[in-house]
């Protein structure tokens, strides 16, 4: 899960349980859920015994699941399909956005690396010129007055 | 009374959308508590329809 989904998990847990659930218990569940959608249902099922309201929610879901097993409703299936299709589109959109962001960051890194290489070349050139100057100075018998030598 | 932002948060966290109108927000703010309002949304037909597959999968894991 990304940062945004983790934040939603924390917020949702806080609203449903307040301080009656240890954050470690919620964190353990977060680690085995692949999305916030999954977490918000499994959290209720796992810890429904902690509050009367959530006990009723879990019981309601179980009862509905039994009914659906007996008579699958075509309309619900259609809604599920539409919902899944919507989620797929959302995910594809997010993936496109993330790819664009990634590309921009890689381009920025590339520019910085190029600039760094140019600076390194300049430093090497300056170093070479300094070495040459030093060698020339070593071979000079006398330092010219103009360059600070004694008169 | 539940705050307006709590109602908005619950809608976004549970129903993945904003409330239909300011009137609905006003009505929901009168719920007994935040967890009661959350329970109401979690047992709604809308939540069941939008999350049927996840509920079914989670129930089978929960057994």
Account of the protein in words:
- The complex is a heterodimer of chains A (151) and B (63).
- With 151 residues, chain A is mainly α.
- In chain A, 81% of the residues lie in helices and 0% in strands.
- In chain A, helix 1 packs parallel to helix 3.
- Chain A is elongated, with a radius of gyration of 34 Å.
- Chain B is mainly α.
- The longest helix of chain B is centred in the first third of the chain and has 12 residues, at 4-15.
- Chain B has one domain (4-62).
- Classes of the chains: A mainly alpha (151), B mainly alpha (63).
Summarize the structure.
The complex is a heterodimer of chains A (151) and B (63). Chain A has 151 residues and is mainly α. Chain A is built from five helices and no strands.
- Helical content of chain B stands at over 70%
Our Rg estimate of chain B from Cα atoms comes to: 13 Å
What's the overall average pLDDT of chain A, rounded? 86
Number of strands of chain B: 0
Structural class of chain B: mainly alpha
- What is the H-and-E element order of chain B? HHHHH
Strand content of chain B: under 5%
The span between the termini of chain B is: 37 Å
Largest sheet of chain B: none
Oligomerization category of the chains in this entry: heterodimer
Overall average pLDDT of chain B: 89
Count of runs of 4 or more consecutive helical residues of chain A: 5
Low-confidence parts of chain A lasting 5 or more residues at pLDDT below 50?
none
How many strands of chain A?
Answer: 0
Strand content of chain A: under 5%
Q: Write the element-wise H/E pattern of chain A from the N-terminal end onward.
A: HHHHH
Give the overall form of chain A.
Answer: elongated
Rounded to the nearest angstrom, the distance between the terminal CA atoms of chain A is: 78 Å
What are the segments of chain B in which pLDDT stays under 50 over at least 5 consecutive residues? none
């Amino acid at each position: 899960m990304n940062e945004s989904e983790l934040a939603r998990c924390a917020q949702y847990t806080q609203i449903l349980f307040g301080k009656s659930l240890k954050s470690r218990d919620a964190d353990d569940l977060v680690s085995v859920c692949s999305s916030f959608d999954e977490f918000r249902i499994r959290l209720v099922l796992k810890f429904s015994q902690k509050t009367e309201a959530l006990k009723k929610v879990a019981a309601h879901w179980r009862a509905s699941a039994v009914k659906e097993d007996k008579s699958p409703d075509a309309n619900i299936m259609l809604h599920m399909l539409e919902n899944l299709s919507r989620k797929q589109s959302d995910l594809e959109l997010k993936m496109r956005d993330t790819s664009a962001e990634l590309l921009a960051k890689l381009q920025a890194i590339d520019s910085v690396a190029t600039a760094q290489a140019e600076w390194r070349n300049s430093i090497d050139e300056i170093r070479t010129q300094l070495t040459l100057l030093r060698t020339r100075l070593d071979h000079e018998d006398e330092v010219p007055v103009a360059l600070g030598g004694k008169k | 009374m539940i705050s307006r932002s709590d109602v908005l948060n619950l809608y976004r966290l549970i129903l993945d959308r904003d409330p239909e109108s300011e009137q609905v927000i006003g009505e929901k703010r009168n719920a007994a508590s935040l967890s009661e309002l959350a329970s109401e949304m979690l047992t709604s037909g809308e939540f069941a329809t939008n999350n049927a597959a996840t509920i079914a999968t989670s129930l089978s894991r929960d057994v």
